[in-house]
Design a protein that fits this description.
The protein is α+β, with helices and mostly antiparallel strands and about 230 residues long. It is built from nine helices and eleven strands.
Length: about 230
Amino acid sequence: MLPTDTISDEIAEKLQDCGLFSHLHLHELTRLFRRYPFSSRRHESGNLIAQRGDEYSSLMILVQGELSAEISDAQGHTLKVESLHAPSPVAAGILFGDDNHLPVSLTAVVDAHTISIHRDVLLKMAGEDPKLLRTLLQDAGNRIHFLADKLRFMKFHTIREKLCTYLLELDQRSPGKLLNLPYSMETLAELFGVSRPSLSRVMGNLVDQELISRSGRSYRIQNRSALIESCQND
């Protein structure tokens, strides 16, 4: 562990952009990390940071760079589960599970910087700051929801099927209203397991065919029955 007085202003500012600590002022965050121990590591692009099956007893927070979470089988086939972009906690939902072993391997896509906080230390922090606990649980829940949706969309064969289904489900929650996508196009492409340019092209086709209309990052279904038919017949 690094001494608790080694947190730099640069790290503190990046942590402040992380949802877990965004409610804290910079001086509060700096004081917090000077009171509690943490470890800091830098990783070169392409390096394996953690392997599937490793015990996960400290929360890793990506403060710089990008990580790829992947699963490989015995034949060498690799499935990319998700990309993690700084600043972001990593696998918070695994930390307090009965089986706290990583279900994925983590690789640095570019040069990356992580810090790690042992779960016992994190619990002490959360005991002093209930909002930290809430955001930690919220992040874990959001990750589970995202991964569950990713698995669900794997049953669809084409991008058009995935996108039509997704838009129809959003519209079902607020029929006839503008659809504000909760994810960026990059994250949505990751959810579908496709490239962003391919997703953008299919989205553009739906607009050109007047099945949906677009206003900035918001969309509206113009022809629901045609969208359903298009999805089923693709």
